[in-house]
Amino acid sequence: MVEITIRKRPQTEAVITQRKFFKKTARGKVVKVLRERYLRDDVACGIQGCRECSTEIPEPLPFSGSLEHQLFSNGHYLLPDTNVFLAQMDLIESSLFTPPIILLQTVIEEVRHRSLPLYNRLKALTKSEDKSIWIFYNEYRSETAIVREENEIPNDRNDRGIRVATAWYNTHISLTRPPIRGQKQTPHPTVVLMTEDAANREKAEKSGVTSISVRKYVEGMKDANLLLDLLAADGSQEIEPTKAASGRQALYPDYLPISTLLAGVKAGELHQGHFNANQYNYLEGSVPVPAFDKPVLLVGRENMNRAVQGDIVVVEVFPEKEWKAPADEVVDQEATLKNDDAEDSGEEGDENGEEVFVKESRVLSESSSQKPPSERQPTGRVVGVVKRNWRAYVCHIDSTSLTSTLTTSLSTQTVFATPVSRLLPRIRLRTRQAPILLNQKILVTIDRWDATSRYPEGHFVRALGRVESKEAEQESLLLEFEVPYRPFGKAILDCLPPEGDQWVVPPKGEFDVQNIWRDREDLRDVIVCSIDPPGCQDIDDALHAKLLPNGNIEAGVHIADVSHFVLPDNPMDSEAAARGTTVYLVDNRIDMLPSLLGTNLCSLRPFVERLAFSSIWELTPDAEIVSVRFTKSVIKSKAAFTYEEAQIRKDDPNLQDDLTNSIRLLNSLAIKLKAKRMAAGALNLASPEVKIHLDSAESSDPIDVEQKELRETNSLVEEFMLLANISVAKKIEESFPQTAVLRRHLPPPKTNFEKLQDILRKTKGLSLDVSSSGALAASLDICVDANEPAFNTLVRIMATRCMLSAEYFSSGSVAKNTFGHYGLASKIYTHFTSPIRRYADVLVHRQLSAAIGFTPLHATLHSKSHVERVLDVVNRRHRMAQMAGRASVEFYVGLALKARGEQAKVRGEADVKEEAFVIRTFRNGVGVFVSKLGIEGLVTFKRDTQFDAENYTITVPGAKEDVKISVFDKVIVRIEVEKDKNTQRGKVKMTLVEPVDSSAL
Amino acid sequence: MASTSISKAEKSYIQAGLLANPPRRADGRSLHDFRVISLETGFAPLSNGSAHLSIGRNPHNGSGGTDIMASVKLEVESVEDDASDRGRIVCNVSCSPSAYPHLTSGALDDLQYDLTTVLHQTLSHPSLHPKNLSIIPRKKSWLLNLDLLVTADAGNIYDALFMAARAALWDTKVPRTRSVEYKSPKSLSSASGDMDVDQDTTSGFDTRNVAHATDFELPDYWDEGEILEGRERWPVAITLNLVKTIHFLDATLQEEASCASRLLVVHSYESPTSPTVQSMRMLGSEELSILNLKNLIKEAESYTNDMFSSFTAKLEDEDFRRNQKARERFGKRR
Asked: Membrane-crossing residues (chain B) (predicted)?
């Protein structure tokens, strides 16, 4: 008989091998969790050629360890403790740090418990190819598994587990390499425990385990000089205490413990939100919280309490009588803190600190005086940080903070790094390479910010290149806005059609092996054309229109069928989802999809057959929709026009061909569509858009800047895209009410407009009705100044700034009455028309394709939470991409202005002068907008002026008499590009020329 | 109690045996002997405390006997009134239908209700209430659910229930919590320098003690927690089965059926030597004189003392087995 035994664990053993723990749920319940642990004897050690463990490991650790370290000539493996990963992740990630690493399960779990972002980096690290890391599941190997002793705290238990594992490794190595008779015994490599915890090191030494601190280890490496810079500031403290560390006074109040914060937030006594620094005044920040209409204002260093832009902080709001209004002065960090010394800043009591303190408190007390109570907003202080949002920042080394500029000097110096973004504080870092890094853009990570230190402390990550070199500037832009710009990997490129650029639409019939023609409409004979900006390579959309026998018009919008090539859930799709959007910089484009698709296979080029997703309407001559249908199709575009070409063709009465007539037809419809949209209350918004003239494709040196010109044909394309988007939105919302990918624009809160309304009333006597988008559109139309045509645009730009940004969302996640698009005055909207450059459109394509029964919907698009998660990323990327684009324009405007200034000098003219409008007034300056260049600038005066905050005017002493300048006044400014002495940052500097010359002020 | 139907002849045979000198019982025990009691604590690892108890189980094949499983589950509860401020104890007894195959479901419900009432009333009495069931005063407290499941009944169900309850409560560990609170700093407003007299005065007349803590955390999620305060106090019950002038302990089902009344005496132990009567129940139809009752209670106390000391010893032994010994065994395994 067959004997069957059930291998049941005796309960007596289970009691000790079960791992029980409690978990507090979000709803405040306590749950007991039980994990069974089965111990095994075959968890492999991961060393190449080990006699006992299985040898079929893909990437084993080398047999003799690493022989490169000077302290361990017999070879060694590194076994890092948890604190190494928590504090020194940058070091481990460095490509110069290559010893074989044994990563314990205990360590991984502890890292995950302490910090999720670090855990994710660690996980990525274990997968990277240039590291040799072996994960050892020590908790599952019977020799290394340990049980918690009575009264042992978790940390001690884990430390003990790590030591036991290290000891086991060393015995394991010596046991599996017994001496062979007749051969000389070679010494075994050592497994070295690397930990920052001195107590753990001590215990390890006691039990005969070799241990070492990170700093000591790095000092013995061959690239010590480069690697020592990567050491986070954490480690330096215990080894070489800085001189006055003990005598330091706390500059900032301590944070409350995290549990207290959450309790306070729950009880409604504290408020949680994202910290936003004020870019005009480094001593001020704000935190928008749901409890108040206006954001909570934080004034002064102590109240901001070490919060950095983007951190999630918890604030305490002061009683109402202590509320303040935001300051109306420009306070520049560089100016106020110029003399601060990096070595000993933070020591309160020295003259320097005293000086800073006095200066800052002067600034604060002045700014808070006499403000109308209406402008007061909730004021408070930061009592804790829930989540730091620190990453690597692009910085310059502050040259004045260097003590020695000799390039040969390799001594460690403490220097300041000034981030490119004005929203960030200066970062103090210790480096040996300071003189070399001068005049370079570098990446710096913040490690910590102690209560005793005025500035955060960080460490150098890597250099990007010389300041103002295009490569460095571009990379720094991409990094600063977190744009993923790495080239596409092999796994992604493998998802492309194997034919590459030889891919064509197969002929209909038996040669169509892949069945591409299934359910596709043949629109190759339809007269389709595309209209795009000049030089456009990724043509997403094409149009057609023709008269029907019944007098109606058939109009079609044909969008590149990207979802045919980008299939759900493959590497290319995940990458596109992570990138979210194509990023357009002035001289570069960071694609969302590999360029084979973007600029070739999907691009609706003329004269070739391309797959498309078509939306075809029957419209009456008055542009009323009779019917709409969606179909996958094959088209063959007859022409690719630029806006200008299309415009010329349309306006030429001699041309009477089909193509031209269809453009005219489209145009007549577009005009009616637009009129209808405007009547429904759509806004005609404006944002400054400028065009950079590049000298030639190669040098890409900008030579001039001008405002973008808008033609009738721009509007033609836009109207039809809107029409397509709205029709598609209706269709997919109907088919997938829970997960349809839509786009909405929430109406802005009325309070956003308060200031603009006040300014308009006081300076021009105009009123702005913000009760609805239609009312706003109407009142914007009458905001005109007969003498100043640009005034209207200016008001529109300012009104646009008051609005919220549009966002993608999943239809099941929000209430149906919030679907609307405020700016377009449409009840429902989505993005369908640019799948090559926007990921949301790809999702919409998939949903529409399922809605018409062409393909089944992929399971992930049925899951509300998945759609939400993807759209969150896309929204963020979208915002970042816009900011990166804007920053890139700004950089080139700077370069162009510099070039123009030099040309002017050559011609013997004076400097660049432009007309500008005042858009904001400060106590010591004015904010201006140069409409011709589309740039905003700041004119600051060294002296205080008479400032009337109530009426938004300042009075400056002129040549003969005092001159009053108010918001919306037209002034003439001199524009120079000045290289900031300290930071090497190219900075547009503006000074008033008319009505007063402010260079003396 | 579950009426096992036995014939008159059987009944009088059992009674005659008990009254004989020396008394004769079917399993050869003397009047005051217990059957073998077996106990295991912590058998349900997901609960906060548990015990498995059986009386009279056949040691060879594990069959027969009264069999009870008890488990304690702690639940976080928001405090709504003053009563639950110190935490609550709720007992519930359920009987498996297989333990009482002869009962209809209605009768089974009645029985469960009866057992639950006796147990709940005794155990949730304020004099026994453990002090560490409060989490945050006036905000959160633990609700202790004690669930007992009767899987087999071979007589003496009350004693068994109380023993199982005591063992499970003994085994119960309350997770350690730390209340977190946010105190708004009063110094801020007073620093502005106004001379408000009635602000921030600490007066002896002010007896209010307003706690602001609203939430709590688990400082050590691995720790099982601390034992219930006063776990020695939990009562021990003894059922005296009365037949004419004599009484006997630990009746089997047949014996229960043949005696007309029973006296249940529950003692709790504030200190190991001086038990106090926690509760008492007279079950059955016969009368009992005060004098008789007094004697019986005195008798019961001495039985309970025996029971208490051996039971406590066993419980401590169980604790030792599950911690120290298991750990040693784990250590030796390598």
From this structure: none
